[in-house]
Amino acid sequence: MERYTEPKYRTVLEAKENELKDLREKSVDSAWKPAYHIHPQYGLMNDPNGLAFFNGEFHVFYQWYPFSAMHGMKHWAHVKSTDLVNWERLPAALVPVEDYESHGAYSGASLEVDGKLYLYYTGNIKYSAEERSANQCLAIMDQEGNIQKYENNPVIEGVPDGYTGHVRDPKVFEKNGNYYMFLGAQRKDLTGAIIVYESDNAIDWSFKGELDLQIDFPESVYMLECPDYFELNGKDVLIFSPQGLNADGHNYYNLYNVIYTIGKLDLESLKYEVEHCQELEKGFDFYAPQTFEGKNKERLLFSWAGMGEIDYPSDKEDWAHCLSIPRELNLVDGKLVQRPSDLLKQLRVKSDSSKVTIEAESKNIDEGIEQHELEFIFELGEANKYGIELFSSEKEGLVLEFDRGSQTVSLNRKKFNSAFGGEYGFVRSSELKIGRHVKVQVFVDHSIAEIFVNDGEAVFTARVFPEEKSNGLKLFSDGKVNCSYTKHELKQGITR
User: Could you give the CA distance from residue 335 to residue 374 in angstroms, rounded to a whole number?
Assistant: First the structure.
């Protein structure tokens, strides 16, 4: 069958003279470019891929379309670090030049096998704007960092009977001496599923069946993307992204959402007994998270700090999106919590602490907050509603508000001249046990804020695109509240 053609399906190898140089120069001085978040120098990034601590270094790959802020021919870009803080940009790891990946090297994961890093990914094939197929492919990185595509790709050709061409995002792991691959999939009846392959050598794969998630999804869920599986504290944890969930209470207000489940996985029967299931993150810009084992066997996570099919203000500069900071995962009281990796403390170059009392008012307490980590401890008096305004100015601000009456926390990003994504709402919220003390940790980086409440009880990721003077920090309250806060100035971690 003839392959589909469109101008956006060209690789970085087909760049015109000075095209990439001109793209970088267009955005290198952007006030919105992050300083320590992984981001593209130009073009669009999305899902993190192939995350690994391998041969003494952290490796992060990510989906990348070089030529504009649109979803075109996806490559795997590559950065590495020895400390999870200072990132070195490397040449593109996967450029889709083969027939089995004719329309992009789509997302996937990695696994260390016999001293090499196996990079599994989906080779996207399109026959028309609507008709597609998918191959599962392998590339291998050696100890010197050289990457070669497997000579007998694809390792899985096409999709099994009963499924559409929407089969992608391999997550491969070893258990009980065997290798398993989870794939996000769509059934022929346009409902979502996770399917499973198995192998005894991590190269030759056979279809095992469909994972019985024992979750009653609504009929609106048409695809399960980006499965991620791991064991933590004796429990099996499965994270994935059901597309088509409808908003419900405080949950699922983004175009696409992410859930996690804790339970017990039986790979022989392909049953997964779910003990707990909930939305993983409460922010606006969090998708396609992937986890991996860190240097000290801790479970780390990166996510795409973006959302598909939404126009972002940086699009006009021909670059889009970034990744979250690395987060460490733990189980606390039967729930999965995310906290900033302790390694991020290496970013700190200067710290200042202060205390302030607010009484039924708002107060500007700092300015120049563009590239910082902030820590707050609120000690409540009679205040019922209180909070923090980030990126604050007379006209703009990202508002985090605590409500003791409803026992909720909310984040509002409407108050920006470049507000975007309004069709999905400008407010996100979460239930929260608000006692006498509330702890907040925030990472601010020019056009992104990542907010951790009560050590990860609630987490919000928000992209915002403020005006130049919108860099203040404000506290507000409807009654007396005491606040201790520390401001850490952070250094540059990756080149623009």
Answer: 25
Length of the chain: 496
| 1 pLDDT more than 80 | no
pTM of the full structure: 0.97
Tell me which long-range contacts 201-205 makes (C-beta under 8 A, separation of at least 24): 202/111, 202/113, 202/118, 202/172, 202/174, 203/138, 203/150, 203/155, 204/155, 205/136, 205/155, 205/156, 205/181
* 47 is annotated as an active-site residue: yes
**Could you give the CA distance from residue 329 to residue 317 in angstroms, rounded to a whole number?**
34
* Cα(108)–Cα(112) distance, integer angstroms: 14
216 in Cβ contact with 233 (< 8 Å): no
Long-range contacts of 256-259 (CB under 8 A, 24+ apart): 256/225, 256/287, 256/307, 256/308, 258/226, 258/286, 258/287, 258/288, 258/289, 258/303
Condensed to tens digits (0 to 9), the pLDDT of residues 13-66 reads: 999 999 999 999 999 999 999 999 999 999 999 999 999 999 999 999 999 999
Q: In the sheet where 223-232 sits, what is the strand order? A: 223-232, 235-243, 259-266, 271-279
Please say whether the beta carbons of 272 and 259 come within 8 A: no
Q: Tell me how far apart the alpha carbons of residues 480 and 377 are, in angstroms, rounded to a whole number.
A: 14
Q: Assess whether 303 and 400 both reside in one domain.
A: no
- List 47, 169, 228, 285, catalytic entry: 47
Same-domain pairing of 307 and 406: no
Could you say which of 340, 356, 386 is where a domain stops? 340
Judged against a pLDDT cut of 90, whether residue 239 lies above it is answered with yes
22 three-class SS: helix
Per-residue confidence at 352, pLDDT binned at 50, 70, 90?
A: very high
Domain check: are 238 and 195 in the same one?
A: yes
Q: 């951790």: which residue's tokens?
A: 452
Nearest to 186 by CA among 221, 232, 136, 157: 221
- Residue 463 counted as domain residue: yes
In whole angstroms, give the CA distance from residue 8 to residue 3: 14
- Reply yes or no: is the peptide bond before residue 340 cis, omega within 30 of 0: no
User: In terms of domains, do 102 and 236 share one?
Assistant: yes
Q: In the Cβ-directed half-sphere of 87, how many Cα atoms lie within 13 Å?
A: 28
Check if the beta carbon of residue 85 is closer than 8 Å to that of residue 343: yes
Cα dihedral sign for 59, 60, 63, 69?
negative
Distance CA 134, CA 168 (A): 7
Q: What is the mean pLDDT of the chain?
A: 97
Q: What is the per-residue DSSP string for 436-454? A: SEEEEEEEEESSEEEEEET
